[in-house]
Amino acid sequence: MRKIDELNTALRTAKKKTQTDGKDLLDKLKARDSEVEVLKEMVRGTKLQLKSKDTDIQRLTIKIKRLEKTNEIREDMINSIALNIKNGKDIDPGLLMQPTKAPRAADSRPSPILKGSELF
After folding, report:
1. For an engineered disulfide with 103, which of 22, 25, 93, 107 has Cβ 3.0 to 4.6 Å away?
2. Distance between CA atoms of 20 and 27, rounded to whole angstroms?
3. Nearest to 77 by CA among 99, 96, 100
4. Rounded CA gap, 12 and 19, in Å?
5. 31-66 pLDDT, tens per residue?
6. Model-level pTM?
7. For residue 92, how many other CB atoms are within 10 A of its CB?
8. Distance in angstroms (rounded) separating the CA atoms of residues 71 and 67
9. HEC profile of the chain
10. Domain spans of the chain?
11. How many whole angstroms from its chain centre is CA 82?
12. What pLDDT digit, counting tens, does each position of 67-83 carry?
C-alpha cells in the first residue's frame, strides 16, 4: 500500500507539473500571438506610409516637369526677344505679356507694336 501511495503522489506531482507547464506554454503562445499582431499592424502602417510617399513623389515629379517646361518656354521667349532687339526688329508687347489665365475681353484688343529701341 505504501508503494501505491508513493505512486499516487508521484502521479499527482507529475500531473500538477504538466498542468503548470501547459499553462505557461499557453501564456507564452498568447504573448507571441499578440506580438505578431503588433508587428502586422506596424507592417500595415509602413505600407500606408510608403504608398503615401509614392503618391507624393508622383505629384512632385509632375510639378517638376511642369516647372521645367515653363522655364524652357520663358528661356525661349527671352532668347527670342533678345535676338529681335539685337537685330533691331519690332517687338510685340502682347508677346511680353502672355496671359496666365483665360483671356478676358479687354485682353483681346490689338496691342501697339514697339521697336526694340523704345523699350530702353
Report:
1. 107
2. 11
3. 96
4. 10
5. 999 999 999 999 999 999 999 999 999 999 999 999
6. 0.49
7. 14
8. 6
9. CHHHHHHHHHHHHHHHHHHHHHHHHHHHHHHHHHHHHHHHHHHHHHHHHHHHHHHHHHHHHHHHHHHHHHHHHHHHHHHHHHHHHHCCCEECHHHHCCCCCCCCHHHHCCCCCEEHHHCC
10. 2-98+106-118
11. 41
12. 999 999 999 988 988 88
Tell me which residue has cell 517687338: 91
All three cell numbers of 56: 507624393
Q: Cell for 87?
A: 537685330
Q: Which of 112, 87, 90, 108 is nearest to 99 (CA)?
A: 108
C-alpha cell at 93: 508687347
Q: Please write down the long-range contacts of 36-43, taking CB distance under 8 Å and 24 or more positions apart.
A: none
C-alpha cell of residue 54 = 509614392
Compute the residue count for the chain.
120
